[in-house]
Amino acid sequence: MTDRREVLVVRWPGRTRSADDGPAALLAAYHLRTEAEKGAAVADVDALPERYRREIADPRTVFADDVVLVALIGDATVGCLVVTAPAEGRSEIKRLWTDPAVRGRGVASGLLRAALAQAAANGVGVLRLSVWAWRTGAVALYERFGFAVTESWDEREQLVCMERAV
């Protein structure tokens, strides 16, 4: 993609802008890439675990209680991020993904800034996330945004848990 237009981050679904198919294609890419990185590559979305197929098929329902942010360049959806509904003063960032064709354009940073603002607006005190240890670029990005490694709340091997105050 050679489009150099500004990256716009909006809540999905929303009234501000209409994104093409929302986050579905990005969620599919995210899950397919993650499974491959874990050594469990699958040929297509139909071979993903059911919980991931549901996210891709119907993100509006699966994330109904959460805030879904999408990044747009023009009318193209190029990034997504989910901020879970607050629980006990915390929310979690999930599914941060940017189209590889636009990486390095500030899409992930824009999504993170919007997620922090959303969390603050919802009265969240702590924002947390988990990231695979081999995604060193993502870990570095989160650290630049003030996230620090914390005790794991997830038993999966090689999963790094991070959090920061909002």
Q: What is the gist of this entry?
A:
This protein has 166 residues and is an alpha+beta fold.
Describe the structure.
Strand 2 (67-73) and strand 3 form a beta hairpin. The protein has helices at residues 24-37, 50-57, 59-62, 107-121, 136-144, and strands spanning 7-12, 67-73, 76-83, 90-98, 126-132, 148-149, 159-165. 30% of the residues lie in helices and 28% in strands. The chain is of the alpha+beta class and 166 residues long. It is globular and about 40 Å long. The chain contains 5 helices and 7 strands, in the order βαααβββαβαββ. A 7-stranded mixed β-sheet has the order 1-2-3-4-5-7-6, with helices on both faces. The relative contact order is 0.15.
Strand order of the largest sheet: 1-2-3-4-5-7-6
The parts where pLDDT drops under 50 for at least 5 residues are 15-19
Average pLDDT score: 91
Name the shape in a single word.
globular
Q: For the record, give the distance between the C-alpha atoms at the N and C termini, rounded to a whole number.
A: 34 Å
Count of alpha and pi helical runs: 5
Order of helices and strands: EHHHEEEHEHEE
> Tally of extended strands?
7
Which structural class should the secondary elements be placed in?
alpha+beta
The main β sheet shows up as: 7 strands, mixed
Q: Report the radius of gyration as a whole number of Å.
A: 15 Å
